[in-house]
Design a protein that fits this description.
Elements: H1 7-21, H2 33-45, H3 52-71, E1 78-81, E2 90-93, H4 101-108, E3 113-117, H5 119-136, E4 142-146, H6 152-161, E5 165-169, E6 186-191, E7 194-199, H7 201-209, E8 213-220, E9 226-230, H8 242-263, H9 280-283, E10 294-295, E11 302-306, E12 312-316, E13 321-325, H10 327-338, E14 341-342, H11 346-349, H12 353-361
Length: 366
């Protein structure tokens, strides 16, 4: 039996999410359509054995539950395993469970905190965090550093010298491409069924700033209580070079996180953008289609999105991307989707030979 004091609120969140996600599979106009398709594409590729609509409903539920805990923070409502570190360090965590709570826990313990995030989330998160700190009346120093800014490492060094600790999300979305074989700040690692480009920033900072890494994992237990697990510190190993040490720690941190991801997959916010980390070769379509007399719309790979302004997009589940198409082409493809058409007759439906060849080449029609 659940013992969470928020049971009624949790039930309300669940019912609200179920209402919001109803009909998402077949409704091209659904408000969460694109969001759902991105999550669906990433979980299917990772062979997560569950219905996509059921997974997405739970995924959105945990997104809302995480936000609720963050907006209603109370130290009594969080189960903390482990201890806050007294000296400056790097708290390394992931977007799992109520992942922002570590910042509030540090604030509650009057620790100086520097949140290291990418530019694309900087402005939005700065205002959000500041408002929450004002609400909770935390009496501590709080800074946010743009991880991609020139000179960011020097600013972090000065803050460390003033007693700050860094908070860094290893799976954070970035505006900069992570696809580079020559970039020494990234490494290739295996996460579930994917090979990804992982940033080695935490290990590099630990080595350069001579401070330990504290791995932090957050998740909700079966009663929907927020758990924050603060692990033992990992000290820089100066017997290794900076690149080897950073790579070793990156693999170690992702491995530790993957153990929890396998148990709580629906609690990982990054499913909606996980594809940006993928190694190029993984993105290529490996499905083989046999020649047949009947021409079909390739539903395994493609589907449609219609936005609020009635713009139509073709969504590619393999590349996790969308392309705007004309209403005329949408009607043609939707017609082919609903009807079996022989290859001999397809020319009567799509009379533009160049367009037809392009649709076949891109495996939109198979």
């Amino acid at each position: 039996m659940s013992t969470n004091k928020y049971d009624k609120i949790i039930e309300t969140i669940r019912n609200d999410v179920n209402t919001k996600t109803n009909g998402i599979i077949n409704n091209y106009n659904h408000q969460y359509r694109e969001f759902f398709l991105m999550v669906q594409s990433n979980i299917i590729r990772n062979k997560i054995d569950t219905l996509a609509e059921f997974f997405f409903s739970n995924y959105l539920f945990y997104n809302h539950l995480s936000e609720f805990y963050q907006n209603n923070f109370s130290i009594e409502n969080v189960e903390i395993e482990g201890n806050v570190f007294d000296l400056p360090c790097i708290y390394v965590t992931f977007h799992l469970g109520s992942y922002k709570l570590i910042n509030f826990i540090l604030g509650f313990n009057q620790k100086k905190v520097c949140l290291v995030i990418a530019q694309n989330t900087l402005k939005r998160e700065r205002e959000k965090y500041q408002n929450l700190y004002d609400v909770y009346n935390f009496k501590f120093d709080f800074e946010i550093v743009d991880a991609e800014a020139v000179g960011a490492i020097f600013r972090m060094k000065r803050l460390i010298e003033k007693g700050y600790s860094l908070v860094l999300y290893l799976d954070g979305k970035t505006e900069k491409s992570v696809e580079s074989n020559s970039d020494k700040s990234i490494t290739l690692i295996k996460v579930l069924e994917d090979t990804i480009y992982a940033k080695k920033g935490a290990g590099i900072l630990s080595y350069l700033l001579k401070i330990p890494i504290i791995p932090v994992i957050s998740y909700f237990d079966s009663s929907y209580k927020a758990i924050i697990k603060i692990n033992n510190p990992i000290y820089p190993d100066f017997n290794l070079g900076i690149s080897d040490y950073a790579e070793k720690q990156t693999v170690c941190l992702w491995s530790m996180f993957s153990d929890y991801l396998k148990i709580y997959p629906e609690q990982w916010e990054a499913w909606s953008y996980f594809h940006v980390f993928l190694k190029n070769e993984i993105k290529k379509n490996e499905i083989k289609y046999e020649f047949a007399d009947v021409m079909n719309f390739n539903e395994k790979r493609y589907t449609f999105i219609i936005d609020e302004e009635e713009n139509v997009f073709l969504f590619d589940k393999t590349l996790v991307s969308k392309s705007k198409i004309s209403v005329h082409l949408f009607k043609i493809l939707d017609f082919v989707k609903m009807n079996s058409i022989t290859r001999n007759d397809i020319g009567e439906v799509i009379k533009n030979t160049k367009l037809l060849n392009n649709l076949i080449e891109q495996e939109i029609l198979i």
